[in-house]
């Protein structure tokens, strides 16, 4: 399977090299979990704390980056447009669909609740891409 070719790394925020970002976006909080999806690799930088709120933040980031990966596998050549300004571009900018679609959906609140259990119930919200993954083999899915 295509996703088996990917390397997924979960790292602590302390491991992130902040010079990765442009000068224009250095205003990102160094305490906020985030991730980077590249070519067959995902790096998620999370808070390494045993706390339910950190869990919620961390899982949202991990889900976000996995959503980029899934759409990159399913729709590698399709382009899309941003519907709003974000950290990486302006509304109307054309980029890869796997990037624009995830960011558009986050902005539009298209998320869903995921529930997990360990010693008690936990939940987090992730980008909802079910409509894109379930119809991908019909007319290229779009």
User: From N to C, what is the helix and strand string?
Assistant: EEEHEEHEEH
Number of strands: 7
Strand order of the largest sheet: 1-3-2
User: Radius of gyration, rounded?
Assistant: 16 Å
The overall pLDDT, averaged over residues, is 86
Protein structure class = alpha+beta
End-to-end Cα distance: 22 Å
Q: Please outline the major beta sheet.
A: 3 strands, mixed
| Overall 3D form | globular
Please give the domain count.
1
Strand content of the residues, in percent? 25-35%
Show unreliable segments: none
Helix fraction, binned, reads 25-40%
Number of helical elements = 3
Briefly, what is this?
This protein is of the alpha+beta class and 142 residues long. Helices cover 28% and strands 25% of the residues. It has one domain (2-136).
Any descriptors?
142 residues; 28% helix; two-stranded antiparallel sheet; alpha+beta; 3 helices; three-stranded mixed β-sheet
Word description of this protein:
With 142 residues, this protein is an alpha+beta fold. The chain has one domain (2-136). 28% of the residues lie in helices and 25% in strands. It is built from three helices and seven strands; from the N terminus they run E-E-E-H-E-E-H-E-E-H. The protein has helices at residues 52-74, 97-108, 130-134, and strands spanning 7-12, 34-37, 41-46, 79-81, 94-96, 111-117, 121-127. Strands 1-3-2 form a three-stranded mixed beta sheet, with helices on one face. A two-stranded antiparallel sheet has the order 4-5. It has a two-stranded antiparallel ribbon with strand order 6-7. A hairpin with a 3-residue loop joins strand 6 and strand 7. Helix 1 packs across helix 2. It is globular, with a radius of gyration of 16 Å. The model has no long low-confidence stretch (mean pLDDT 86).
């Amino acid at each position: 399977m295509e996703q088996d070719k990917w390397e997924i790394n979960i790292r602590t925020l302390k491991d992130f090299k902040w010079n990765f970002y442009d000068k224009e976006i250095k205003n990102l909080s160094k305490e906020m979990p985030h991730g980077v999806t590249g070519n067959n690799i995902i790096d998620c930088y999370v808070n390494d704390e045993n706390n339910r709120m950190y869990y919620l933040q961390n899982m949202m980031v991990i889900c976000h980056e996995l959503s980029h990966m899934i759409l990159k596998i399913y729709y590698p050549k399709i382009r899309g447009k941003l519907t709003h300004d974000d950290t990486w571009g302006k509304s109307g900018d054309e980029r890869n669909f796997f990037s624009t679609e995830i960011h558009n959906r986050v902005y539009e609140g298209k998320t869903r609740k995921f529930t997990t259990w360990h010693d008690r119930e936990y939940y987090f919200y992730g980008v909802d891409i079910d409509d894109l993954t379930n119809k991908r083999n019909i007319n290229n899915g779009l």
